[in-house]
């Protein structure tokens, strides 16, 4: 998963890019980068690490330019190393191009084979490089035309910001899997994965970029195109963004993330009859759901786990061992609150089960008499091919185990998940979501080579 931002302005914007990326740090913590266009040059800096560590004031000052793009990365395709940091910057027909991508292609391997057969040499192993090369391959001077062809080739999830010498382009795939939001601040145009990145600049959110839409900002003017005039967009916005990934203050495709999470908690409580003393959220992602649960059940909500604010998202660690240590460093029980109590512990999701298991153990060690784990989403049973890091099905605890087996593994006294119908009850936009991780109904299938070559 990643966060992207693009800004078109008439003043230097590297600081604005920096602040926007900072606000989207939750979307990826492995690496980050900023590229700015200055006359005919694109200057950039990217590196492994957090935004605040990679960019120092003096370096930002050197990145001069009135148009730029930025990226924070958590790898879902391609390894965690420098070559895969974004934005990717290249040149094509004497024009510089920079590109930042959020999402995952489902046919990147085949496209890569095809390009390699034609003599392209890849420097990195992420799917983003494939997009850049296809774009360059069909570029004859008109970025929109080359994008339309590129979008016919690439399949899967992609929100992109692309920068040429004098234009900024934002693109969302025909299903709109990943978010991309358009904002304005005076004459300045801002595109970002989440609205927090627009808010913190004092900008105003205008709207979501539509599925299949290509927006070009050039000479101070914005123009919108669709990748295929005959295509009827079928919006399939990722529901996991609303469950876990996005910040509480995000609104994506007209669904407010906080409202959604509160409602999920309320619906979970409505279908529950457990008797307990307190509701304890797993910070931070369990808070909104726990508030909803507490609202409906009338059980008091208490902070039973203290979070170390200086540790990042634990899931966002590439190995299992690191993930386990991460959870321990991150959360500590408040024994004063939980001792002798029957606790409804609320979290947003169970993926591998590692987090819940460790938390339940630490709450029990701290004296909680019972732990009733309540999850404000359905069991994650299928891999995500579109950019959420749940790629290997065998690692998903719910793909191999019954709820009772999961309960046993986690070590809680009872366990309940929100059902798919309950989750959809929390929003009016029911049919517009991709929920393949819960029901295996993939809007875009993985494509084989023959199919690809015939398209
Ligand atoms: P696990 O230990 O694998 O069950 O991790 C589940 C926890 O990680 C949940 O509490 C979520 O808050 C968080 N989480 C779930 N899915 C993701 C994801 N794709 N990326 C990062 N964190 C996640």
Please supply descriptive tags for the structure shown above.
455 residues; alpha+beta; Glutamine Phosphoribosylpyrophosphate, subunit 1, domain 1; Rossmann fold; 7-stranded antiparallel sheet; 6-stranded antiparallel sheet; 23 strands; binds adenosine monophosphate
Give the SSE map.
Layout: E1 2-8, H1 14-23, E2 31-38, E3 41-48, H2 51-54, H3 57-62, E4 67-73, E5 88-92, E6 95-102, H4 108-117, H5 127-138, H6 143-153, E7 159-163, E8 167-172, E9 181-185, E10 188-192, H7 196-199, E11 204-208, E12 213-218, E13 221-226, E14 237-238, H8 239-245, E15 251-252, E16 255-256, H9 257-270, E17 278-281, H10 287-297, E18 305-307, H11 320-330, E19 331-333, H12 335-338, E20 342-347, H13 354-365, E21 370-375, H14 397-400, H15 403-410, E22 414-417, H16 420-425, E23 433-434, H17 436-439, H18 449-453
Parallel strand pairs: 14-23, 17-20, 20-21, 21-22
Antiparallel strand pairs: 1-4, 1-10, 2-3, 2-4, 5-6, 6-7, 7-8, 8-12, 9-10, 9-11, 12-13, 15-16, 18-19
Helix pairs in contact: 4-5, 5-6, 9-10, 11-13
Residues 244, 282, 285, 313, 315-316, 347-356, 388-390 line the site of adenosine monophosphate.
Please provide a written account of the structure.
By secondary structure, the protein is of the alpha+beta class. The protein has two domains: 234 residues, 4-Layer Sandwich (Glutamine Phosphoribosylpyrophosphate, subunit 1, domain 1), CATH 3.60.20; 176 residues, Rossmann fold (3-Layer(aba) Sandwich). It is 31% helix and 25% strand. A seven-stranded antiparallel β-sheet has the order 3-2-4-1-10-9-11. It has a six-stranded antiparallel β-sheet with strand order 5-6-7-8-12-13, covered by helices on one side. Strand 9 and strand 10 form a beta hairpin. It is globular and about 70 Å long. The C terminus is likely disordered. The structure holds adenosine monophosphate (AMP). The site of adenosine monophosphate has 19 residues, from helix 13.
């Amino acid at each position: 998963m990643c966060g992207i931002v693009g800004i078109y302005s008439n003043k230097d914007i590297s600081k604005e890019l920096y602040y926007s990326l900072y606000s989207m740090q939750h979307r990826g913590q492995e690496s980050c980068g900023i590229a700015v266009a200055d006359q005919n040059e694109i200057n950039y800096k990217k590196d492994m690490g957090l935004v605040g560590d990679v960019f120092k004031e003096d370096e930002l000052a050197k990145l001069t330019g009135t148009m730029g793009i930025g990226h924070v990365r958590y790898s879902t395709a391609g390894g965690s190393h420098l070559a895969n940091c974004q934005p990717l910057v290249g040149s094509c027909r004497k024009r510089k191009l920079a590109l930042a991508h959020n999402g995952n292609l489902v046919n990147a391997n085949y496209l890569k084979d095809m390009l390699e057969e034609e003599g392209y040499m890849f420097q990195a192993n992420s799917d983003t490089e494939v997009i850049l090369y296809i774009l360059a391959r069909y570029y004859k001077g008109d970025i929109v035309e080359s994008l339309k062809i590129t979008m016919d080739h690439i399949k899967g999830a992609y929100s992109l910001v692309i920068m040429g010498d004098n234009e900024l382009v934002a693109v969302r795939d025909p299903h709109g899997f990943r978010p991309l939001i358009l904002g304005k601040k005076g004459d300045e145009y801002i595109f970002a994965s989440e609205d927090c990145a627009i808010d913190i600049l004092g900008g105003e959110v205008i709207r979501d970029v539509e599925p299949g839409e290509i927006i070009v900002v050039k000479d101070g003017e914005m123009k919108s195109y669709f990748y295929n005039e005959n295509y009827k967009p079928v919006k399939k916005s990722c529901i996991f963004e609303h469950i876990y990934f996005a910040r509480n203050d995000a609104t994506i495709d007209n669904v407010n993330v906080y409202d959604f999470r509160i409602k999920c908690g309320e619906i979970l409580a409505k279908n529950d009859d457990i008797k307990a003393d307190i509701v304890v959220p797993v910070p931070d992602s369990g808070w909104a759901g726990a508030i909803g649960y507490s609202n409906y059940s009338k059980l008091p909500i208490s902070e039973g786990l203290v979070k170390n604010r200086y540790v990042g998202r634990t899931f966002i660690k590439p190995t299992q061992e690191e993930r386990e240590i991460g959870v321990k460093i991150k959360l500590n029980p408040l024994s004063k609150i939980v001792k002798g109590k029957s606790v409804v512990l609320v979290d947003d999701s169970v993926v591998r089960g590692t987090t819940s298991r460790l938390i339940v153990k630490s709450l029990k060690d701290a004296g909680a008499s019972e732990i009733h784990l309540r999850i404000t989403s359905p069991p994650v049973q299928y891999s995500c091919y579109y950019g959420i890091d749940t790629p290997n099905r065998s690692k998903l605890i719910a793909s191999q185990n019954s709820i009772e087996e999961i309960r046993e593994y986690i070590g809680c006294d009872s366990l309940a998940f929100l059902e798919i119908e309950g989750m959809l009850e929390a929003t009016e936009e029911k049919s517009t979501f991709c929920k393949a991780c819960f029901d295996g109904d993939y809007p875009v299938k993985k494509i084989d080579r023959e199919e690809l070559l015939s398209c």
